[in-house]
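REQUEST FORM: STRUCTURE PREDICTION
Request ID: SP-0412
Submitted by: Lab K.M.
Chain count: 1
Length (residues): 137
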Amino acid sequence: MYVDQITSFIHRYLPFLLDNEVYDVTHAEESTVNGGDSLVEFASDSLHFRFFTDRGQLFLDLRPGTSRRENDWYSIDLIRRLFTGDREESGLMDPGYAEFIRTRLADVEKRVSPAEWPHTEKALKDIKHKRSEEMFG
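STATUS: Completed
RESULT:
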């Protein structure tokens, strides 16, 4: 049910993820608990994408392709803010975030490369902390 929501969004806005020579589906699951949730992960050597639904709303987290640490996932609003410096109104995945991924994919991959990840990780943690202060004071 919600996996269809994820795959429909990808087909429409991010079809490059379906290129089996670059990206692999590494995990997919669906639950009917609490109205249903789903998760689909795509991975390349440089970047992992985790799409998930929560109560019917679509989200995206990203992490470096070389990482397997659970705490290395960062939401798309934090990733875009890393590049723009602008506070995002929402973390819900939408066509605007898809456009950002399409147009800035090479830049994102560079920022999560092994050479740049330590600096990027610190910047993302700082942004995440700032977002938390903005939301909750």
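NOTES: The longest strand covers residues 24-31.
Reviewed by: T.R.
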